[in-house]
């Protein structure tokens, strides 16, 4: 992992250390990446930005993320930079504007040094669906890093950057964070503007941070969250608590906290994951928290309804890639319909095609009521489960992934097995609630385990606070 945290780098640069040197070092590390985590390095743009920061600091300005090198997932737009969602169909496509989340981090002094690999259009849990080939897990390169933001997670785990951005539609930040041993958070739906994020499932997508520690994740979230006129689903909220968390010591606040857990979550876990969950529960009670059993009765349907809603929304969102306005256009087509069909057949990979077919089916006349509408109704019941649970507890603690990182190829040929690895992460997206993965122990092979803390809508600062407590308990 990065030698210095984002906050340490910012403090040094604000104190007169060179942002340019910091960024040059990160650029060199990004170029030397051996895990296929990095797709593109933005040498000139990053150095120009670093120089501007050095000038501003010399002039007496202070910036919360001064000179902090970051990597962004290949589905986030930055004006003038190629963005492909790791798909052949968008090869060579240059973004016309910058995503609000990225723009806000740059405004705070962060410098985008590289674009990180991902599953094609964020479809996957192992990073094996990228058109650029899989990312290797830096902890054990024979294993997957998780997905779909595997490159962003691996870039932080390998120490290339202290901070990166991913997107999470059904677990794509938390699951790779867990499998790579870093912190990863999906904020409440609406916390972070999605403007400039290549859409997957618009009612589920959120942008969030990867970091080496919880306070850095809080700082990053604090800087990029808030209302944005370009995203009508973004919320106007005051997140002062996050800033405080990013600088202060939040430990001690666990005293009196009600930590919920779901008994069914312990079933079917790799034994070491279950053991770490038990260790965390005990450590939390020792620190003064109370454990409260809660139930989420409709969670058992989460994977099923997610793969109806997410594929339906993905099929609609991906209909814009037709060879006309963006990316790849086939060289040989006699008619317009043939041009659409061939461009899409040539440009999309297998998993993207599978999702488009599933999504088109669930949205088609005659099936819509049975699938999409029904799934929305169950989704409402899931939201109610959460509301009832949070009447009894402050946060819910559970696993992120049923297993530690698996080997390449282990689940690729069996989509259902792959989809089931998202079993614990999907519910938070369906309910729009915040959830974080925080490293907590390892299995016998030394592969990292992450635990999940979920909270009620817009209780992002509480979720971060509990995660910071777990982080300290894990070290103790
Ligand atoms: N693994 C899930 C999927 O393939 C989640 C992906 C995501 O969150 N982007 O849909």
Structure report:
This protein is 39% helix and 13% strand. It is an alpha/beta fold and 476 residues long. It has an eleven-stranded mixed beta sheet with strand order 1-3-2-4-6-5-10-11-9-7-8, sandwiched between helices. Helix 2 (19-31) packs antiparallel against helix 3 (43-58), helix 7 runs antiparallel to helix 8 and helix 7 packs antiparallel against helix 16. The model has no long low-confidence stretch (mean pLDDT 95). The structure holds glutamine (GLN). The site of glutamine has 13 residues, from loops.
Summarize the entry for a quick read.
The protein has 476 residues and is α/β, with parallel strands linked by helices. 39% of the residues lie in helices and 13% in strands.
How many individual helices?
Answer: 16
Radius of gyration: 21 Å
Spatial separation of the terminal alpha carbons: 20 Å
What level of helicity do the residues show?
A: 25-40%
Number of strands: 11
**How are strands sequenced across the largest beta sheet?**
1-3-2-4-6-5-10-11-9-7-8
How does CATH name the architecture of the domain at 6-246?
Alpha-Beta Complex
Q: Looking at this structure, what is the CATH superfamily of the domain at 6-246? A: Amidase signature (AS) domain
Which CATH first-tier class of the domain at 6-246 would you pick? Alpha Beta
**Helix/strand/pairing class, anyone?**
alpha/beta
Portion in beta strands: 5-15%
Bound molecules: glutamine
Q: Main β-sheet, in a few words? A: 11 strands, mixed
